[in-house]
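step: validate -> pass
step: tokenize input -> pass
step: predict -> running
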Amino acid sequence: MKKAIDKIEEIFPCLQIYNQDIYSGEWLFRGQGNSKWNVTPSFLRMIKTENVGIKNLKEFYKLHDSRVDEFFSYLEEHQIQPFQNPKHKYSISFTSPLGKSNDDFIKILSDKISLSQHYGLETLYVDWTKDPLIAIWFAIEQWAFQSENENLVLWMIRRDHHLFSQGTHIPIKVEKYKATIEIIEESPTAKKGNKHSTLQKGYFSVVRIWSDDLQEKSLEDIPFEWVEKLSNIDELLLNRAIANDIKNYGEGGFTKELFEEHYQNVGDLFRRVEIDKKLIPEILNVLRKVFGKAGLYPSMQGCANNVKLNAKIENKLCH
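step: predict -> pass
step: emit ->
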């Protein structure tokens, strides 16, 4: 495994290269507080943690949709209307866009899921940002408030890469199943009135899984074990890279072992940088000069959260 960055002066030059012409393109960033974690949607993590009895992909999507709909039913009950369009009252169906090209329907789906995600509901969306400093801030927060004590990791994906052959999609096939990685910019409708969303410069990735038959009934034939295998974006992109030999990494082509041992990147599409946890206090000092002492949330709540964050970091680094 490539050595983690362990000097503060190495981090920010590393991030600067993504603004230079040599890496011309639009990079998105995701920070995570544990270098051993995959890039996995929170809804799947919740299913596994709580041992929810899901048998197949249809049940998986159905439960996801029902939870988002329940969130919006509570909003309606309390006369909270985040969206003005009456079509947003419709129930969502995550599988429907697979068989339809209804842009209006897909927009409503995206609005409702992204708003649910921002207010803490577990969804099939994975958060990304255009700002690497914001991504590192979230990685530090996540690291501080979880029990494990691994290094930080910064994931990067280039959303204008040529492999997104259908605009914002990368199609991938693993054995007899198919998956599509899609990058979604959070809509202005979902951002409106959501201060946190605006500050975070948000994008989402989402994986859609199906078999050759796009009918909803066929989703029953995809067992949950394959839902797990096809939901990790990093693993999917590695599979795509290996299958297509994006870049020649030696006589045997590109392999997962080479990814871990050397560059930890998939050509100019997907990259991973590990950051030593001992640098957290120094990094935080730099980030607070950028964002202010309240961090990303300049409010009384943000100030209170930072008191808790400082205590958590000091406690973890001392043990």
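step: describe -> Residues 31 and 138 are 6 Å apart (CA to CA).
step: cleanup -> pass
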